[in-house]
Structure formats: structure tokens, C-alpha cells
Amino acid sequence: VPCSSSSLAVSLKAALIIQNWYRGYKARLKARQHYALTIFQSIEYADEQGQMQLSTFFSFMFENYAHVHKEELELRKQSLESEQDMRDRHDYVDLIDVPDSYNGPRLQFPLTCTDIDLLLEAFKEQQILHAHYVLEVLFETKKVLKQMPNFTHVQTSPSKELTICGDLHGKLDDLFMIFYKNGLPSENNPYVFNGDFVDRGKNSIEILMILCVSFLVYPNDLHLNRGNHEDFMMNLSSYFQLHGKRILQILEELYAWLPIGTIVDNEILVIHGGISETTDLNLLHHVERNKMKSVLIPPTETNRDYDTDSKHNKVGVTFNAHGRIKTNGSPIEHLPKHEWEQIIDILWSDPRGKNGCFPNTGRGGGCYFGPDVTSKILNKYQLKMLIRSHECKPEGYEICHDGKVVTIFSASNYYEEGSNRGAYIKLCSGTAPRFFQYQVTKATCFQPLRQRVYTMESSAIKILKERVISRKSDLTRAFQLQDHRKSGKLSLSQWAFCMENILGLNLPWRSLSSNLVNIDKNGNVEYMSSFQNIHIEKPVQEAHSTLVETLYRYRSDLEIIFNAIDTDHSGLISVEEFRAMWKLFSAHYNVLIDDSQVNKLANLMDLNKDGSIDFNEFLKAFYVVHRYEDLMKPGVTNLG
Amino acid sequence: MTKERNQALEIIVAEFHKKIKEAFEVFDHESNNTVDVREIGTIIRSLGCCPTEGELHDLIAEVEEEEPTGYIRFEKFLPVMTEILLERRYRPIPEDVLLRAFEVLDSAKRGFLTKDELIKYMTEEGEPFSQEEMEEMLSAAIDPESNSIHYKDYITMMVIDEN
């Protein structure tokens, strides 16, 4: 042990050096974590925006496509939009029997808490609930939801605290965690689930089942609010498709009957997204909420003879003045434009620090609302606080607008293992809200920070690169335009400018550059290296690269469109339909692809030459291959 | 200064501004050009600088409002950070200096430090670690079998990580 003063000073200095270095290292890790989160979030919202823009395409399509398959499309529109009260249980549930051989959970109607336990146990064992029960639960849930008002009023007390959960997005482990930590729903343990139960995670149906069954057992103590993903068009392309058309049909209605929000102790408003400066709670209490089918369904007129006065709203949808459109058959009803917009604002808006109310350009729907808007609306209705969800937060929750707005998000590790915690709130009148956080991890031992950051970062960079490759042609053109000397190199600034402009993502490009591109010793970017080690697989050799790139880029949009056209949910569309649809698509999205190339591709994809295309197979054929995908990065061995 | 040098400086400063803005925006959760003061250290370090805790404390005082609000505004942060980058202040610790620091603490020249020794130095000397910082460093650095830190390997791994 050194005891002289000079060696003490030396060891002090040594310790300081190590601490200084470590803090720098840790801060850079934290920054990398934030960069990864920013990437995930930007891409998520850009995708949502892309989906919203589909609504414009749909109006375009319905107007121009009708002559090709008028009847089928009429039926489709009618089934999408008409009130299905006429259909009863017989059309859904009774058509499917549960075979004796079925080993999964069997529910007993009327449901009791035993059924909740049964389901939870079964899902923990990864059993699958038979379609008969799924349909029955959904059908019964819809019936009860119809009796609920647009806003449920809830009172809390010390013996009856209310738990509020945010987005779950199909992540079953998080729901299990919440029930484990906070107990199952009951008369003394009420819950609010604030929307976005489904989509993205792989257990959407299971979560929906647990929540619906709990709701049926405790309809006054389990409250479900609609989220922007409780929209059958938003999850048309997800795996609900696998579960058959009947489930989709009931879901269409069930989602629309979900209440808009909850009001707690007359002072806290709980809704999924947010508000706008024009939010009118009185109006929202009275709208016919079930007429809000989907944010993507534009009510267009196919009967041109009908005298209309149509207007465009901010998502490019057309309505007539009374919200009614007549077609060849029954009247199809929609909400008037201003009511539709009120609901969109509730489901899609995000709070921001800047005063005022601006269109939510990130998502393409709803608005960004500032602290002044919050104060104004809360004061107007004598409320104290707004609790909302809709945005992933690293800690599972976030408080803003001077304590008046709380974001609660319950899907931990939403983007990637280690990306964020999940949280829930416990409310009791007279006391401050309490927050509880958790994180569900797959690893049996706790991973060190650097490992978690590395996992997140690689995942984020990977999806960003997929974005980049899907815009290769446009990016290359932009780079070359800037490269006056044809040197193959650009300054970091020029490269960042092109990336931001073409991809439309507001990301810290300079900080990310080392992960995305080669930089020479002078700090200049070899821009074509943006595309190295990754390519889009060609489904057939003959397919032209630009076509392949375009199809890859628009594949989720195309998936939704194909599913919408596929009226009998067969998974097949005719080559004729494909061609007609593609013509419209390329015209609307300004895609400069030769029609002959698409025809050629359509023929090549019609493998059994029977005139129909399995579009899921078709779309799956366009995917990205990352070179070096499975190689471990050197140095990533777990030392501890 | 000559005209060319002025122009060159302008370009450098413009690049720094963009770089600083990028790093700042990532932590600006509410998109209102402010960040929580507790994130300033992370931002400065993510830009490649390595101030000590004491130096960081002084920097924060420089960029804070007269009446501290808990938030730092971009307008105040930008000129201070630009200056730091231009003057190349708070340069990172070179690998060999770091190695020598460990070697100083390892007076018996064994090539490693025991867990207890590291904890003692890091939490009692210099600018002591918090418990969280100590746990985090240990989780990655420690070899569970020998309960010690083979610092040369540790440093090598960290350096690879950062590059």
C-alpha cells in the first residue's frame, strides 16, 4: 500500500484518468443508444405516414378502378362501410365447430374469472385458442361495447385504485408482467388499457382475447380505449390475415365500437393520442363513434349522378357536406368531416414543447399540440391532467407540459431488446399518480450496457440500411448531381444533405456516418459505399433492378392494397387485377416504370399459369439480403 | 487573417454547428431546442470530448440560465461547444495513458486488479463513481472466474468497441 504523498497523488491521478475515460465511454454508449432509438422512431413514423398517404391512393383507386370490377368493389365497400347489425351470431360463431380432438382452452359462456385464468395459463403454455372461441369472444365483446358510451367515467378511491396501461402492441410478455406485478383485473383492481393492444408484436390475438374476456367478466372495471392501431385497415397486412375473413369482419366492427376515452374522477382525461386546439369534448361525447371505421377509408362517391359538395381534409380524403354517399344499394353513412377529424386528433396527436397546434407531419395524421393548447383544453373542461400513450418512451413514461400531460407506454423492448422500459400508472383521487416500470428480457442473465447498446444499434442500422437500399436509384442520382468532379466522393455535409432529402428522415447523419458509409482519411465520403454489403434479392433473374427496388420499397403499401382488392380473402388476385392496380399505383405514386416490365413480371409470377397471383408469395419474393449478417462483431464476447 | 483562412474557418465552424445541432437534437425530446441539464455531459462526451466531472460542472454553469431552470437552451450551448471544439479542449485519453493509469494502481505488476481493489480506487479516489457507475463498469470488466479485471484485455475490447 503506497503511503508516500507523491505516490498517493499519482494513484489519485490514475484513478481520475480511469474514471474520466469510463464516463466518456459510457456517455458515448448512451448517445449511441439514443441514436438507435431515434432511428427506430423516425422509421416507424415515416411508415405510419406512408400508410396514411394510402388513403389518398384509395380514393384515387376507387374512383378509377370501379369500372374493372365494379360489382366486387361495391360489395367490398358496402361490407366495409355498412352497419352489420343484420348479421347475427349465426353468421360467425355457429359456423365453426370445436372438434373433440381440440386440446386448447375451452371457454364457458357466460364467462367468469375462471376463464381468465384458463386463458392466461393456456397462453403461457403457448397454446392456441380455437377460432370458434375467438369469434365468440369478439362477437360478445362487440355486443357489450355497443352499450358503452363514448367516454367512460370512472371514480377511484383508496381501496379501489385505477391502473392505466399504454400501448402493448401484441407483446404478451409485457401483459403477463403487468398482471404479475399488479394483479389480475377485478372489481377492486380496475384497469384502463389505453389503445394499441394489437399490431407489431406477435401475440395480438392473444392480448385481444385476454382483454376482451376480462372485459366481458368485468365490464365496469376493465376499460378499453381505442388506439390508432385498432383500425382494421392498419392491420390488414399483419397476421390477422392468417386468421380468416370472419375474424377480420368482426374486428372491423369491434374496433369501431371501442370507446374513445376515459375520464377519471372528473379531472383526468385518458385518451390514446392527444388533443388539438379545436378538441370539443362535448361533441366527442355524442358522435356516433362506430361510424369511424378507419383512418384509411375515404368515403368516395361511385355514383357520379349524386349531387355532392365534397371537401378534402388534411389526410386527403373526400366527403360530401352531409357525410352521406348513395350508391346502387343501401345508403352508406359516414361521420361528417369535422367529427371525423375530431376523432383523428384524439387517436393520432403528439404533445410537443412548442406552443401552438401544427399538423403532425411525422405521422401524417392528427397534430402536434403545445403546452398552451393543453392548458386551454384542460381549463375549458375543468380537467387537471391528460394521460395518453401513442409514443414509445425510454423509461416507459414521460411527463411534459408542466406536469399536465403524461405519456404511458407499456410495451418494453418495443424496438429491440433493451430499447426501453414499459410502465403503468396507478391513480387514486387525492394522491399523486404513481409510476411502475419493468422490462421483460429474454436473457437469463443481465447483459452489460455495451451489449444491450450494441444489439439495439445493429438492429437500428440494419433497418436504416434497408431503407437506403430501397432508394438506391434516387440516392445515386442525388449523389452524382452533387459530385461535380465525378470523383465518387462527397463531403460529409453533401452526403448528409442527400440522405436527409431523399429518405425524408430527420436523423443525425454526421454522427451515424461511420456506421453507414466509408470515409477516407480526408473526411470525405465514398458515397457508393452506402450500398455495400446489402442488396435486394431478385425474385427472377429477368427482373429489372429499378423495378425490384420499387416493389421492395412499396411492398407494405402494396400488401394493404392487394388485401383490400382481394374481396374473398383468398390470397389471390387475377393477373388482370394486378395489372390494372399497378397502372393506377404507378400513376398515383409517380413511379416511372415501364408497363411492359410490370406485365412481364406479372406473367413470371403467375407460376402455375392459371391467371392468378398469390400476392403474399409475390411480395415475400422481394427481400433484402445483408452480407455478413451472422458474423459476430469482434470483441463482443461477454466477459461478465 | 487572410481571406482564404477566414473562409476556411467559416466552413469549419459551419460543420461544427451542424454536428453540435445533430447531437443536441437527439436529446431534445420535446423538440423545443432545450435539453435536460443532466444530459449535457452525455452530449459533450458524444462529441468526442472528455471533460472531468469538475470541468463539466463549470461548463454547465456557463450554459445555464441566470436562474437555473433544469434545462439548457441550444442558443447558449452552441457558442460554448463550438469554442471547445475549435480549441480542441478536453481531448480524449490515449490508450497508452489509460494503460499506464491501470498499471500505476496495480503496484505489484500482476497484470490485473482484484474486484475489491478496483472498487476501492474507483469509489474512494479521484472523482468517485456512484454505485450505479461502479456496477456497470464491473459488469463488463470483470472476469467472473477470477473475480478480477485483466485491464489490458479490457482496454483492448473497449477500444475496438468505440471504433
Task: Provide the fold topology.
The complex is a heterodimer of chains A (640) and B (163).
Chain A: H1 5-65, H2 70-81, H3 89-92, H4 113-124, H5 131-145, E1 151-154, E2 162-165, H6 172-182, E3 191-193, H7 204-217, E4 222-224, H8 245-257, E5 261-264, E6 268-271, H9 281-286, E7 311-312, E8 318-319, E9 324-325, E10 332-333, H10 337-348, E11 350-351, E12 357-359, E13 367-369, H11 371-380, E14 385-388, E15 397-400, E16 405-408, E17 422-427, E18 434-438, H12 449-469, H13 472-482, E19 489-490, H14 492-503, H15 509-516, E20 518-519, E21 525-526, E22 534-536, H16 545-553, H17 555-565, E23 572-574, H18 575-588, H19 595-605, E24 612-614, H20 615-620, E25 624-626
Parallel strand pairs in A: 1-5, 2-3, 3-4, 6-14, 11-13, 14-16
Antiparallel strand pairs in A: 2-17, 5-6, 7-8, 9-10, 12-13, 15-16, 17-18, 19-21, 20-21, 22-25, 23-24
Chain B: H1 3-27, E1 34-36, H2 40-46, H3 53-63, E2 71-73, H4 74-86, H5 95-105, E3 113-114, H6 115-124, H7 131-141, E4 148-149, H8 151-162
Antiparallel strand pairs in B: 1-2, 3-4
Helix pairs in contact in B: 1-4, 5-8
Structural description of this entry:
The complex is a heterodimer of chains A (640) and B (163). Chain A is an alpha/beta fold and 640 residues long. The longest helix of chain A is centred in the first third of the chain and has 61 residues, at 5-65. In chain B, helix 1 (3-27) packs across helix 4 (74-86) and helix 5 packs antiparallel against helix 8 (151-162). Chain B is globular. Chain B has helices at 3-27, 40-46, 53-63, 74-86, 95-105, 115-124, 131-141, 151-162, and strands at residues 34-36, 71-73, 113-114, 148-149. Chain B has two domains: 1-87, Recoverin, domain 1 (Orthogonal Bundle); 95-158, Recoverin, domain 1 (Orthogonal Bundle).
